[in-house]
Amino acid sequence: MNSRKKIPMRKCIATGEMRPKKELVRIVRSKEGEVSIDHTGKKSGRGAYLSKDVEAVQLAKKKNILSKQLEAKIDESIYDELIQFIEKEKRLI
Fold it and tell me: What CATH topology corresponds to 9-92?
C-alpha cells in the first residue's frame, strides 16, 4: 500500500512553474470584487498563486498579470503587502 501523501501542486502566474502549494501565496478576489492576500489558502473566491519570491511579485506587477488573472483592479498596497509578507517569511526560515 502506498503511504506517501500526495503533495498539491499549483502554478505560479508570474513564472509559470509548478510548485508545491505551500511554496506559493494565494491572492483571492471575493464575489464583491475585493482583492486580498489569502494566508490560509482557504478563502472563497477566484484565486491566483504567486511564488514566495520578490522577483515574481515585481514581474506580476510590471506585466499586470494579477489583474488579468483575477479580472479586477489590483491596488498598489496589495503588491506592497505581498513583498512584506514574503520578506517576513524569509526571516523566519
Answer: Hypothetical Cytosolic Protein; Chain: A; (3.30.1230)
Alpha-carbon span 79 to 34, nearest angstrom: 14
Q: What is the pTM of this model?
A: 0.88
| DSSP alpha helix (H) spans, the chain | 54-63, 65-70, 76-92
Instruction: Report pLDDT digits (tens) over 42-74.
Output: 999 999 999 999 999 999 999 999 999 999 999
Give me the residue spans of the domains in the chain. Answer: 9-92
* Contact indicator for 57, 65 with CB cutoff of 8 Å: no
Q: How far, in Å, CA of 87 to CA of 54, rounded?
A: 8
